[in-house]
What we know:
This protein is of the alpha/beta class. Helix content is 35%, strand content 20%. It is built from six helices and six strands; from the N terminus they run βαββαββαααβα. The chain has a six-stranded parallel sheet with strand order 3-2-1-4-5-6. The longest helix has 16 residues, at 16-31. The N and C termini lie far apart (32 Å).
Amino acid sequence: MRIGIDVSPLYMTVSGISNYVRNLLQGFAVVGEEHSFILYTNRPIDTRLPGNFTVRLVRLPFPKFQAWFQLGLPIRLLLDKVDIFHGPFHRLPLLSSIPSVLTIHDLSGLLMKGYHLRSVVARNSLIPLFVRKAGRILAVSSFTRDE
């Protein structure tokens, strides 16, 4: 199976989501030897990976507006013949027809807008679309699941 994963949070040196992605990759390296993993990002990442892992840099203009993710990534997923895509950063490429798994870490940017930057609130306002698109949803806690 060809599994695509958004690893763009790895450019953040210290964050819960980047740690989640690192641990996810370590786990897949141990249990996923018969699968190939294609790791998608718009920035170079510095990490050691097994032979069944490939990093794919997807770049388009306007990185602040996530054009690479919503426009470039769906094309790349098709070209790479990905069977399933995992979005560990609570987002999915909406124009992709590839089956997907979505990880939701928390919903505070959606439910507690006054405590977040406008850019976070804007990004999190799309979570309901991503949830409807996902074939499976992973919540990192019971609290998030219940929300």
